[in-house]
Design goal:
Layout: E1 6-7, E2 31-38, E3 42-50, H1 62-65, E4 68-70, E5 73-77, E6 83-86, H2 88-101, H3 109-122, E7 134-143, E8 155-165, E9 176-180, H4 199-202, H5 205-213, E10 218-222, E11 230-233, E12 237-242, E13 245-249, H6 259-270, E14 275-278, H7 282-290, E15 294-301, E16 305-314, E17 317-320, H8 328-341, E18 352-354
Parallel strand pairs: 1-3, 9-10, 9-16, 13-14
Antiparallel strand pairs: 2-3, 2-8, 4-7, 5-6, 5-7, 6-18, 7-8, 10-11, 12-13, 12-15, 15-16, 16-17
Helix pairs in contact: 2-3
The chain binds pyridoxal-5'-phosphate (PLP).
Length: 355
């Protein structure tokens, strides 16, 4: 499996979090995984090394033209102390899809899965055991060739860093308030919306800031052309339950193909709950609300799994769903998926992978 993975041990181990109050994305483990790419040589020198700053040439292409992709998944500690990943092969498959869009050479998905497992074995004590916590896994690739030419880099570094994270919801699930963005666009068909790549996120900060200044937690993006068709939330896909039927926007090329989204579609099918992937406008959602048919709305993603939407703000009109409480379907989906992820519910889908 391995192209002789080397291991350089970190002799200055850090202190691990002692409570479940771990802020997202600011604590990193003792080691990271790295592997380099060079044209003609391919991916080489896989290694687990101490977590430390990188040295890069100021002309490294990542800094100038944003040639980079990333992934996000979690490792969960079960009550009987096993470590589980949730559909991790889907993350490496999607990483390669993102890379393809950004003209980055593909990685060998099986080989990299092996390296991730090795890294997690080294860092297993960093997977926290407090209720609701997990170890966030961030694989990413950056273009490292020093060259200001506007063309794909001939060199890359692939890395995996690990970060213990606290529960997304502390003290019960809180439905969120969402602003429907009318001016800015996240992505258009033919653009990079389906790729997990840096520019898609920094270009959303202005809309995010505007939303939070007006008391919203997040942004709902509409299509870039007609500003009618619903796409997704900041880093979540979106679902609506209207008159007994679940609807989520069809993947149009500008929407990120969420692994949580795919899993929820599979669970709903298994439960024989009608679910469709289709185009849906914001007017339709507001009309369903007026007609008393908008039963639930929720975002889906690795971070929260299910994040119920309590309020939408659009075009000066506010709608409150389900009295700003979590709906029964959202709760059942949340319990099912998190139960499987944490090894508390039987994994009839074969989704979890033990490290
Ligand atoms: C990562 C991400 C999602 C959710 O994907 P999951 O695989 O479910 O975590 C949705 N939208 C965007 C823009 C994302 O970056």
């Amino acid at each position: 499996m391995n192209k002789s993975l080397t291991f350089i041990e970190n002799n200055h181990k850090k202190e691990k979090p002692k409570t479940k109050e771990i802020p997202f994305g600011r604590t990193f483990t003792d080691h990271m995984f790295l592997m380099d790419y060079e044209e003609g040589k391919g991916w080489h020198e896989p290694r687990i090394a101490p977590y430390e700053p990188l040295t890069l040439d100021p002309a490294a292409m990542i800094f100038h033209y944003g040639q980079t992709v990333f992934e996000g998944l979690k490792a969960y500690r079960t009550d009987d102390d096993r470590i589980l990943l949730f559909r991790p092969e889907k993350n490496f498959e999607r990483l390669n899809q993102s890379s393809d869009r950004l003209s980055i050479p593909p990685i060998d998905e099986d080989e990299v899965m092996g390296y991730l497992k090795e890294l997690l074995k080294v860092e297993k004590d960093w997977v926290p055991s407090f209720e609701g916590t997990s170890l966030y896994i961030r694989p990413f690739i950056i273009a490292t060739e020093p060259n200001l030419a506007v063309s794909p880099s001939k060199r890359y570094t692939f890395m995996i860093i690990l970060s213990p994270v606290g529960p997304y919801f502390s003290g019960g699930i809180h439905p969120v308030t969402i602003n429907v963005e009318e001016k800015f666009t996240r992505a258009v068909k033919g653009g990079t919306g389906m790729a997990k790549t840096a520019g898609n996120y920094s270009s959303g900060y202005q809309a995010q800031a505007k939303a939070s200044q007006t008391g919203n937690n997040d942004v709902l993006w509409l299509d870039g052309i007609e500003k009618r068709y619903i796409e997704e939330v900041g880093s979540m896909n979106i679902f609506f339950k209207i008159d007994g039927e679940v609807v989520t926007p069809a993947l149009s090329g500008s929407i990120l193909r969420g692994i949580t989204r795919t899993s929820i579609l599979e669970v709903l099918n298994e439960w024989d709950i009608p679910v469709t992937e289709r185009r849906i406008t914001i007017e339709e959602v507001y009309q369903a609300y007026e007609d008393g048919k908008l039963e639930e709305a929720f975002g889906t993603g690795t971070a929260a799994v299910i994040s119920p939407v309590g309020t939408f703000n659009w075009n000066g009109k506010q709608i409150v769903i389900n009295n700003h409480d979590i709906g029964p379907l959202s709760q059942k989906l949340y319990d099912t998926i998190t139960g499987i992820q944490r090894g508390r519910k039987e994994d009839t889908y074969n989704w979890t992978v033990e490290v």
